[in-house]
Structure prediction request, 147 residues.
Amino acid sequence: MARRSRGRRNGVRGFFAYHPGVLVGIVLVVLAAAAVVAGKVLADRAATEQTQQRAAEVRRLLRGATPEDFLAANAGERTSGDVADRVRAEPDFQDVQATARVGFIRFQPDGWWAGFTERCVVAEVRAGGVVVRVPKTACVRVGVPED
Prediction:
């Protein structure tokens, strides 16, 4: 009969008894992976909560707005105090693209979670009302809607 090595004879428990560094390494890798997953989950929850609050603020800001309010802003014109000027003054404002049928505005919220998860608050101002949504992507990736 062939002679077995000491680690083989004792199985997995025996292996780790003779190689405790391997066990410590595996435990550290598992803990690091769990920390990354927990961080991602916490970041996603925080991002969802904060962007939903921001979307509600944008809805209030744009209450009563029409696409025509943003045509001049799209052309670089400014009228102090109008809705387009107030939108442009928002700290997370990215850009506005307007036509006669739709004013499309992007806001890129900022928070501790921004490095883990991307969010964008976009508003479509149409004659029938304002629609605000929060896609799970960066603002540069959110396309302008068709008229």
Remarks:
- Strands lie at 93-98, 102-107, 121-126, 129-133.
- The mean pLDDT is 87.
- The first helix runs from residue 6 to 9.
- Residues 69 and 83 are 7 Å apart (CA to CA).
